[in-house]
Automatic annotation (TrEMBL):
Residue stretches making up the MbtH-like domain: 2-45
Species of origin: Streptomyces corynorhini
Entries under SUPFAM superfamilies matching the protein: MbtH-like (SSF160582)
Protein name: MbtH family protein
Length: 52
């Protein structure tokens, strides 16, 4: 089930986001919608996740 997106902000940081949610200002979808595990792999592969 395609439940998530990978978002990227203007600084190049990546974040997981639920596919049903509105994309926040300053972010854009760069992958998905796709299953959660696929989105996690995409973020891990790139290594640019946003700090928590």
């Amino acid at each position: 089930m395609d439940t998530h997106l990978v978002l990227e902000n203007d600084r190049g940081r990546l974040s997981l986001w639920p596919a049903w949610g509105a994309v926040p200002a300053g972010w854009r979808a760069v992958f998905g919608p796709a299953p959660h595990p696929a989105c996690l792999r995409r973020v891990a592969r790139d290594g640019r996740s946003a700090p928590r």
